[in-house]
Design a protein that fits this description.
The complex is a heterodimer of chains A (419) and B (258). Chain A is an alpha/beta fold. Chain A has 18 helices and eight strands. In chain A, the strands form two sheets. In chain A, strands 3-2-1-4 form a four-stranded parallel sheet, sandwiched between helices. A four-stranded mixed sheet of chain A has the order 6-5-8-7, covered by helices on one side. Classes of the chains: A alpha/beta (419), B alpha+beta (258).
Chain lengths: 419, 258
Amino acid sequence: MPVTKVLTAGIGEVDMRGIDAYRERGGYRQWERAVRELKPADVLDVAEKSGLRGRGGAGFPTGRKWSFLPAKQPVRYLVCNCDEAEPGTFKDHMLIESAPHLVLEGMLIGAYGIGAHHAFIYIRGEFKRGYEIFCAALEEARKAGYVGSNLFGSGYDLEVTVHRGAGAYICGEETGLLNSLEGKRGEPRLKPPFPAIEGLYRMPTVVNNVETLAYLVPILERGPEWFSAVGTERSKGYKIVSVSGHVQRPGNYEIPLGTTVREIIELAGGLRPGRSFMAVQPGGGSSACIFEEHLDWAYDYESMGKAGSMLGSGAFVVFDDTTDFVKAAYNLVRFFAHESCGQCTPCREGGSWLARVLDRLVQRRGIPGDYEMLLRVSGSITGLNLCALGDSIEPFLKSVLMRFPEQFTSRIANVRESA
Amino acid sequence: MTERERDFPALLERLKPECDAIVARYEQRRSALLPIVHLFQQHEGFVSREAMHAVAEMLEITPAEVEGTVSFYTLFYRRPVGRYMLQVCRGLACSINGADDIMAYFREKLGIRSLQTTSDGLFSYEEVECLASCDRATCMQVNLEFVYDLTPQKIDGILDAMRAGTYAVAPLAQTDAPGGTWEIPQDAQVASGRKAPGARDVESPNNAGGVGDASGTIMLDNIISGDVRFFRKTAERAVVDSRAVVETIDEQASHAGH
């Protein structure tokens, strides 16, 4: 079974929150090397060659994202997205609490790579403990001379600001995040312009996920070829998968991309005794379910796309035969309805009306035609909104509507009987 | 005027240096809004009207802009809450691992529903979205500190310790008596159907649907109808706006003349 420990090395075994413990394991050496020996363009080159793709959800190639920054604009920002709130995802929560210096070193390298002098980390409001741990780590790093002005005598300045959210899933969407960072409601912006052109304070900005930035440290250390040698054709390197639901040992498992779905379930201890497999939601609350026929498929960006779903943030929720899929669909749709910022009608209205219909099905008070209505409505939200939240409402619902129709239709009340 | 309101100027003076330091971290003043509101809530237990006015002055924006922003976020409480904020995860991974039973147990033990506070002002209870701890379902936060692997026995122990004042997590500040809920009812426009119907009864402290709530509207009314500190600002804006309107009309009229 392919168990890898790159970012997760030492987590749960050693306390790496203090700077000394982190330095003992080689911490900040890559940061020092980058500033002393490499040009920003070299760092960008390494990121591009490694094949690293965004680990927050969209899977966009990191190096390419950086390359969109306009060369002529000297003021630019790096923002680390630690607003982890995708249902089922709990990797950034772990990284920020257990390996804050690794996250910080990745941010510093990323900021240097794009030539920023001010980097921000946006930490989910609920992660109060993680925020305190990260702030303490930042202070240590500042004292040690890793953050501030004239770093390592090079003349390069880099400031880091920690910004804590206050409870809103939508602030994980990069432009919603930027608005929140500007002290506004976390409402996503119309794109284009994308943040690389007009981001924080209308300046070119790169927003990268915690895990993405953290991977820059081992990639710089071991070389881009080490990373790109692992994985599949277009999905390179490693990924932390947050496995939860009906498995015996839920937790974060770091795997080479391309590990099969079945292997991931086995890594997490397999199903409970006597239970049978029904489905996996492989990419967080926004993704469609995959089923038995996909168990031996590779877990990578392309295969999950081909299976009708996505790899997303790597949240991997396993469902056994005890699952009530109507309730599960209600749970997720209600979540998106609750978190919709309300700007776009299809998302705001579609989500809350779908939740209402699903609620009555959960109560076994469905009305004849509800199943068809769910199918119809769940096909009319995607692609009509400012951001991807609206597009996230339907995939899970649609996949289980098609796969388990009887779970829905059996809850339609017999009108004549109840009359 | 309540005790708290009388004490507010002293609190403001005490927090001013810290607020200034927060503002200095950002290239633009308004970015300091969330951290400063967090700071006031930490000291007052909720985000008071006085705090929102003070933040508006510090950041050179209007109180309505502050409240409009504050109302977007679920972790900002615009009304007093209990000493212990119990936020139980209702996310999918917790849900398929028994969260419904855990939530029902809480409701029964506390005698309240989500978004309510017990009459002794000790507990506020809310069922919240995924807390990113699905490997240790079911989970909750107590004053934002995580508690994992919940069972009825564990809940009994926690509630008893809180009642006895021996629980490990410090209670929240409580400078004003909490009411039955900290949720702010949505305004008359909503009741009359002007808010989009889909969003109308989505139970949430952050207001989906784009229309403000009762207190936001009242605050705006206060400003326009003579809260002297902000009246001038609004008046200035009105002058600028009306000039623009006049110019536009003139321009259209002259075009029409040709």
